[in-house]
C-alpha cells in the first residue's frame, strides 16, 4: 500500500486534485513543487493512515515506517543534510493537513531532529549558535506540549523568570549561552514532571510527532470544529513531514502569511504580514505585531516599521511573481505561508483563501472580468447561506458616538451586546437569550464555542491573520482585533478603554468594518445590495429556472422582499394580520361569539382592515403573483391566556367571567396542531372564508385601479386532506367572486389552490388537482405530519438524535429527501397527471434552505418561497441547482 507521497526539487508524486488523500496542505505542496516553485522537500502521509491509527488502537502499519524512512532519505539527498546526525543536521517540520481546512485545530511540531548533539552541529553549520539554541528550546517547548502533554505555559514561566533574572525585556536580547541554560532548565522540568527525559533519539521524536498529529484529529476542539462545519470524522488528517527552512536565522530571514487579494474586501491587492527573524508560529500567535509586506500597505497603516518590499526587495519581487502565478494556476485567490531564510524565499503552503462574503462576491466578479473564470463558476463560488453576512447591519455613519477604542477591522458588520470575558460566559448567556460580545486579549482554538455564541468579538492583541480574525471571518461574525489602546483585565473583570472602565455585562458596540469600539448600543442600517452583489445576482437570475417568491404577511415584509429581488408572494399568512394593533380584540369577539350572527358582526369590522392590508400588498407587488392563504391556525391561538388578560377581555366584551371561561374551555383542544384548524375552520365557519375572499377580491379591484396593472390573486386553502374539503371551500370563494364581480362590474381573474401539508393530500394529489389550480408544499406541516413529530416540540430531542447519529440533519430545517421528499415527488407527478399546467411551489421553511432548494429544482417545482432575508440565498441556490 502506498502510504507516503514525496515532493521536492521540482517534482512530486501527488497533485492538487489529490486533496482527499493528501489533505489540502499536502496536495498543494505537491502541486507547487511540480510547478517548479521553491518548496522545501518533504513527504505526505495519506489521511487514510490517520483513520487506521484511530481504528487500530493507535498503531501504525509497518510498511508506512519503511516508506517514511525512504522519503526522508530522499530529502537528505536533496538537501545534503542528514537526519539525526552529522555535521549538517536535517531538521523537520511535522504538520497536519486535512481535506478541509481546520485552521489551528490540530497540532504541529517544528525544528524536529534537534538533540544535544545535533544542536551543536547546527550551531557550527549555521555559524549562529544563538539561533541553534533558540531553535532547540522552541522544539522542546512545542514537542513537550504536543507530544508529551505538558502545558506550554509552564515553559513560558521559566522563560519569563529567566528574562527577569537576566534583566532582558525581549527574547531577542537573550544570548546563545543564556538559551543554552534555558534549554537545560526545560529539560530538567520535563524530567521532573514526567519522570522521563526529553527524547534524544530523533526517530523517537519523529514517530512521537506523527502520532501526536494523528491523535490531534480527535482532540475536543477539532471535533467541535468538524461538528460546526459538517466535516466527517472519518476523513482523518494527512501528515506533512518537510525539511525545515528558518525564518529565525537573523535579520535577513523572515516568515509571513499573505493573501493574493484582500480577504475582507476582495480588493485586488497583496495583503499580508511578516515578521523578521521569526518562525511561522509567531505570526499566527499574534504575540509580536507583524509588519506589512507591501510599501503601499505600510503607508496605509501608518506603521513606521519597514515593509518587506523595502527590507528584502529580491525575495519580495520573487514572491509577487509567485502570487500571480499561483492565482492564474488555481484561478482563485490564494492564502499562502512563506519563509525567507537568509534572503532565499521558500513557499510553505498555498490554498484557496477564506474570505468574507463581500470579498467572495468581489473576487468572483473580478475573476470573471479578468477572464479567469466563467459566470457559472462565479455563481458556484459563493456559498448561498453566506449571503446572510451581506445582510448584516452596519453602523449608521451619521451617528456620532463616543469611541472608546479602536483596532483592526478584522471581520465586517457591526454588533452590540453585553461584555463577557470567557467563552463559557458567552455560551451560557446565549442560552439565556442574551446577546454578548466576547472580549479577550486574544482567542485560541479553545474559544470556538464561545465565538460561535457571541454576536461579535473584540481582542486587544493580534493582527488581521490572528486566530480571532480568521475564525470570525469564517463564521461571518463581526470582529475587531488587536485593539491595542484597550486593556482587558480578566481577573478583575474589566475592560479599560479611552477614559472609561467597563464591567462584564456592560453594553458595547463593535464595528468590524471600521475597527471602532463604542460604548452602549448604536443604531444600525442595512447595507445596499448593489455593485458586485447586483452583478452576481443578475447572473444567477438569468441561470435559474425556478422563480423565487417570498413569505410576507405585512407591507414591510413585502417591501423588504422586493428589494431583495422576490418575484411574488408565495405565502401570506393572513392570521398574522389579526395580531396587529387592536384588531386582536375584534378577532376575539369573532371567535368567542356563540352564533353566526355575532361572528358576522365582528367579521364586518375585520373586512375593511383585511381589504386595506391586501390592497397594500397588491400595490407593493405591482402585478407580481400574490398567494393569500385563508385563516389557518387553531382559533385558541388568538385567545387570552393569563388571568389578567381574561378579566380584561371578558370586561371589554361585556361577558361574565364564568360565561367567558366556559367559552374558552369549549375551544380547548388536546392537540390543536391536528385539531380544528386549516380548511376545517372554513368548513365550520364559512363566513370567515367569505369575509377573507371578499377582502381579497375587493382589494384586487382597488389595487388594479390604483396601479394600472391587473391583479390575479391566488387564494390558497390550507391543510386539505380530502378533495371534498377543497370543493366546499372553493364553492364559497367562487360565490363571493361572482358577487364582487357583479357589484363592481369588473371581471375577476383568480386562481384557487391548496397547500399540500398532509400525506393524504400528497397521495391523493391527482384527485385534489381536479379542484386546484396550484399546489404549494407546506413542508413545515408536511414534515410534522409525515414524521408524526410535533414541529413545536421537536427541538427538544432532534438535537439528541443528531448527536447520537440517529438522523443527520434536522428535517424541519433541511428537507428529508427520502420521506417528505418522496411525498413531494408523488404529489407533483400525480397532480400534473390530472392537470399538466398545475403550478407547483414550496412555502415551508425549506424554501430558503440551499439543499432543499436543490431538491425542489430536481422535483420540477415552479418556484420556492421563503422569508424576505432568505430571498437572495434562494436566488443563488436556485441558480446553483441548475448547474
Ligand atoms: C407549512 O406548513 O409549511 C406552512 C408554510 O404553513 P405554516 O408554517 O403556517 O403552518
Ligand atoms: Mg402549515
The CATH fourth-level homologous superfamily of the largest domain: Phosphoenolpyruvate-binding domains
Low-pLDDT stretches are none
Classification by helices and strands: alpha/beta
Strand order within the widest beta sheet = 13-23-22-15-16-17-18-14
**CATH-level-2 architecture of the largest domain:** Alpha-Beta Barrel
Bound molecules: phosphoenolpyruvate, magnesium ion
Catalytic activity: pyruvate + phosphate + ATP = phosphoenolpyruvate + AMP + diphosphate + H(+)
GO molecular function: ATP binding; kinase activity; metal ion binding; pyruvate, phosphate dikinase activity
Domain PEP-utilising enzyme C-terminal: 530-881
Family: Belongs to the PEP-utilizing enzyme family.
What does this entry look like structurally?
- This protein is of the alpha/beta class.
- It is built from 34 helices and 32 strands.
- Helix 33 crosses helix 34.
- The longest helix has 26 residues, at 596-621.
- The mean pLDDT is 91.
- Residues 571, 573, 632, 757, 778-781, 843-844 line the site of phosphoenolpyruvate (PEP).
Amino acid at each position: 500500500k502506498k502510504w507516503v507521497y514525496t515532493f521536492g526539487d521540482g517534482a512530486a508524486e501527488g497533485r492538487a486534485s489529490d486533496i482527499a488523500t493528501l489533505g489540502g496542505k499536502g496536495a498543494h505542496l505537491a502541486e507547487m513543487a511540480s510547478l517548479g516553485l521553491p518548496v522545501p522537500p518533504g513527504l505526505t502521509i495519506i489521511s487514510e493512515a490517520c483513520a487506521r491509527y484511530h481504528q487500530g488502537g493507535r498503531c501504525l502499519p509497518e510498511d508506512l515506517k519503511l516508506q517514511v524512512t525512504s522519503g526522508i532519505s530522499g530529502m537528505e539527498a536533496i538537501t545534503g543534510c542528514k537526519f539525526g546526525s552529522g555535521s549538517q543536521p536535517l531538521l523537520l517540520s511535522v504538520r497536519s493537513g486535512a481535506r478541509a481546512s481546520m485552521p489551528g485545530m490540530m497540532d504541529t511540531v517544528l525544528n524536529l531532529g534537534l538533540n544535544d548533539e545535533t544542536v551543536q552541529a547546527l550551531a557550527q553549520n549555521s555559524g549562529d549558535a544563538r539561533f541553534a539554541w533558540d531553535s532547540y528550546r522552541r522544539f522542546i517547548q512545542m514537542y513537550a506540549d504536543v507530544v508529551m502533554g505538558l502545558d506550554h505555559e509552564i515553559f513560558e514561566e521559566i522563560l519569563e523568570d529567566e528574562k527577569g533574572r537576566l534583566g532582558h525585556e525581549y527574547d531577542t536580547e537573550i544570548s546563545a549561552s543564556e538559551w543554552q541554560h534555558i534549554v537545560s532548565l526545560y529539560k530538567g522540568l520535563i524530567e521532573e514532571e514526567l519522570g522521563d527525559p526529553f527524547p534524544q533519539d530523533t526517530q523517537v521524536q519523529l514517530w512521537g510527532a506523527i502520532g501526536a498529529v494523528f491523535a490531534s484529529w480527535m482532540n475536543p476542539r477539532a471535533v467541535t470544529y468538524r461538528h460546526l462545519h459538517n466535516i466527517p470524522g472519518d476523513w482523518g488528517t494527512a501528515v506533512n513531514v518537510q525539511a525545515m527552512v528558518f525564518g529565525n536565522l537573523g535579520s535577513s530571514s523572515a516568515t509571513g502569511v499573505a493573501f493574493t487579494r484582500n480577504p475582507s474586501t476582495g480588493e485586488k491587492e497583496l495583503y499580508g504580514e511578516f515578521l523578521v527573524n521569526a518562525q511561522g508560529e509567531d505570526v499566527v500567535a499574534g504575540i509580536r505585531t507583524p509588519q506589512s509586506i507591501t510599501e503601499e500597505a505600510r503607508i496605509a497603516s501608518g506603521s513606521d516599521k519597514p515593509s518587506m518590499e523595502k527590507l528584502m526587495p529580491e525575495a519580495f519581487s520573487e514572491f509577487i511573481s509567485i502570487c500571480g502565478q499561483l492565482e492564474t494556476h488555481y484561478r482563485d485567490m490564494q492564502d499562502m505561508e512563506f519563509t525567507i531564510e537568509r534572503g532565499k524565499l521558500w513557499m510553505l503552503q498555498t490554498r484557496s483563501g477564506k474570505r468574507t462574503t463581500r470579498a467572495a462576491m468581489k473576487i468572483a466578479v473580478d475573476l470573471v472580468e479578468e477572464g479567469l473564470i466563467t459566470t457559472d463558476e462565479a455563481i458556484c463560488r459563493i456559498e448561498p447561506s453566506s449571503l446572510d453576512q451581506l445582510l448584516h447591519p452596519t453602523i449608521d455613519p451619521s451617528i456620532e458616538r463616543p469611541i472608546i477604542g479602536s483596532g483592526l477591522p478584522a471581520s465586517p458588520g457591526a454588533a452590540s451586546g453585553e461584555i463577557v470575558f470567557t467563552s463559557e460566559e458567552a455560551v451560557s448567556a446565549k442560552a439565556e437569550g442574551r446577546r454578548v460580545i466576547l472580549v479577550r486579549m486574544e482567542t485560541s482554538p479553545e474559544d470556538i464555542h464561545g465565538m460561535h455564541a457571541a454576536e461579535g468579538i473584540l481582542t486587544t492583541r493580534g493582527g488581521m491573520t490572528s486566530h480571532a480574525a480568521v475564525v470570525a471571518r469564517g463564521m461571518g461574525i463581526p470582529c475587531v482585533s488587536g485593539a491595542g489602546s484597550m486593556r482587558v483585565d480578566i481577573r478583575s473583570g474589566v475592560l479599560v478603554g479611552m477614559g472609561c472602565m467597563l464591567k462584564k455585562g456592560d453594553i458595547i458596540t463593535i464595528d468590524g468594518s471600521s475597527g471602532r469600539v463604542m460604548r452602549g448600543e448604536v443604531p444600525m442600517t442595512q447595507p445596499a445590495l448593489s455593485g458586485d452583489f447586483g452583478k452576481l445576482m443578475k447572473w444567477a437570475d438569468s441561470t435559474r429556472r425556478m422563480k423565487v417568491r417570498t413569505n410576507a404577511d405585512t407591507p414591510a415584509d413585502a417591501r423588504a422582499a422586493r428589494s431583495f429581488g422576490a418575484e411574488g408572494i408565495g405565502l401570506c399568512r393572513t392570521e398574522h394580520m389579526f395580531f396587529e394593533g387592536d384588531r386582536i380584540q375584534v378577532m376575539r369577539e369573532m371567535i368567542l361569539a356563540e352564533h353566526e350572527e355575532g361572528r358576522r358582526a365582528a367579521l364586518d369590522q375585520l373586512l375593511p382592515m383585511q381589504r386595506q392590508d391586501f390592497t397594500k400588498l397588491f400595490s407593493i407587488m405591482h402585478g407580481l403573483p400574490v398567494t393569500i392563504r385563508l385563516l389557518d391556525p387553531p382559533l385558541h391561538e388568538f385567545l387570552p391566556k393569563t388571568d389578567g388578560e381574561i378579566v380584561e377581555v371578558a370586561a371589554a366584551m361585556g361577558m361574565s367571567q364564568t360565561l367567558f371561561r366556559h367559552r374558552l374551555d369549549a375551544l380547548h383542544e388536546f392537540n390543536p396542531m391536528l385539531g380544528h384548524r386549516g380548511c376545517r375552520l372554513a368548513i365550520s365557519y364559512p363566513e370567515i372564508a367569505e369575509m377573507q375572499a371578499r377582502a381579497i377580491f375587493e382589494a384586487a379591484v382597488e389595487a388594479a385601479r390604483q396601479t394600472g396593472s391587473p391583479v390575479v390573486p391566488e387564494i390558497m386553502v390550507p391543510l386539505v386532506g380530502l378533495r371534498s374539503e377543497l370543493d366546499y371551500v372553493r364553492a364559497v370563494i367562487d360565490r363571493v367572486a361572482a358577487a364582487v364581480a357583479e357589484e363592481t362590474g369588473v371581471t375577476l381573474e383568480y386562481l384557487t389552490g391548496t397547500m399540500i401539508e398532509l400525506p393524504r393530500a400528497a397521495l391523493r394529489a391527482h384527485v385534489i388537482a381536479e379542484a386546484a389550480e396550484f399546489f404549494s408544499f407546506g413542508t413545515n406541516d408536511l414534515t410534522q405530519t409525515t414524521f408524526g413529530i410535533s414541529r413545536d416540540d421537536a427541538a427538544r430531542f432532534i438535537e439528541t438524535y443528531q448527536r447520537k447519529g440517529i438522523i443527520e440533519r434536522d428535517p424541519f430545517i433541511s428537507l428529508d429527501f427520502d420521506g417528505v421528499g418522496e411525498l413531494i415527488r408523488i404529489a407533483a407527478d400525480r397532480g400534473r397527471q390530472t392537470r399538466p399546467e398545475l403550478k407547483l411551489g414550496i412555502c415551508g421553511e425549506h424554501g430558503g434552505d440551499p439543499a432543499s432548494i436543490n431538491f425542489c429544482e430536481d422535483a420540477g417545482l415552479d418556484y420556492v418561497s421563503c422569508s424576505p432575508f432568505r430571498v437572495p440565498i434562494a436566488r443563488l441556490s436556485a441558480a446553483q441547482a441548475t448547474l
